[in-house]
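Async update (no meeting this week)

Hi team, since we skipped the sync, here's where things stand on the single-chain job. The sequence we agreed to prioritize is pasted below, unchanged from the tracker. I ran it this morning and attached the output directly underneath so nobody has to dig for it. Comments welcome in thread, and please keep replies under the output.
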Amino acid sequence: MPHSKRDVRLRGHVTKSEKGLKDYYKKYFSIGVAVNVRALSGDEADLIVREFNSVTAENDMKMGPIHPTEGTYNWRNADSIVNFAIKHKIKVRGHNLLWHAQAPAWLFKDSTGNQVSKEVLLARLKEHITTVVKHFKGKIYAWDVVNEAIDDKPENYFRNTSWYKICGEDFIAKAFEYAHEADPSVALYYNDYNSEDESKREKIYRLLKSLVDAKVPITGVGLQGHWKLDNPTPELIRKAIERYSSLGLKIQITELDVTVRKPMRPEDRPVGTAQTPMAVDSGLTPDLARLQEQRYREIFDIFRAYKNVITNVTFWNVSDRYSWLDARNGGIGGGAAASDPTRRVIRKAYPLLFDEKLLRKKAYFSVVDF
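Output:
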């Protein structure tokens, strides 16, 4: 009942026995969260167990952290996350098997420092994917197989990464084939940001259609969901979901957050300033909190309407206490900030449903009051 939820809001802290996000959405889709090892103990762990029924390793399953040198695997943190999830009967999403960022440099070089051939790189990719997927077989229900292979620039199709330079586009289909061979039962996703932008959407659709037509084992597409208060529009979100699902693919919202940050308006920019500066952090003001509340309500209204194709919604990080966006100018760059080394100014983004004290924000109640 809405009244009881308001009572919880007034009390602030809630108990483990009270309903969490996962319970409100039990008939819709699983609700996940990206975690690091630090979040597996203390008050953050209690919140995770109460609110979520899916977890994603924020960084600890990516190529660089888990496979830093040839023949060496670092399972410690990833295993800790999986074991925590198993203990608390929480599902695990694997993230990710192939990405141009956080890929170890040794993959692309031979013993003399020269670039490897396509055959060598694909063999190394197969060894990596096979080893990682088999290590977690039966413990992970879905993998982000390929992450962010499509270029942001409208005139380009694929990113001109080392993967593409050496292998052409073949590495994408091969990655899915290797993952499926290692675990035929696990769901396999292509994952990208700005996947609602019309230009990029059509390029992602083109890639997905080519994989489906070639009978590559792909389950669905992950829309990262690093969104802002006013972008993308509801129409663009709906269009993206409908466009991708028309291929018979499932949809997962894989990295959801809504920054309250906006660039300074051009008319407010100091004379002679080359780049648009960010405003000083004034906290999550009542006006910003209200806008974020409205935005989350709008977003989840859409998600529920497409429950027939959306199988999971995952938030990227637990609470406003820590967000990856904070170290990236408050999240103005969205998903693109993940591989942008130039912006490391600490400005809080306040992008999640729980505040720095782990209390439920107004945005939380806009998500569960339906």
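Quick observations from my side:
DSSP finds twelve helices and nine strands in the chain.
Residues 286-305 form the longest helix (20 residues).
Reply here if anything looks off.
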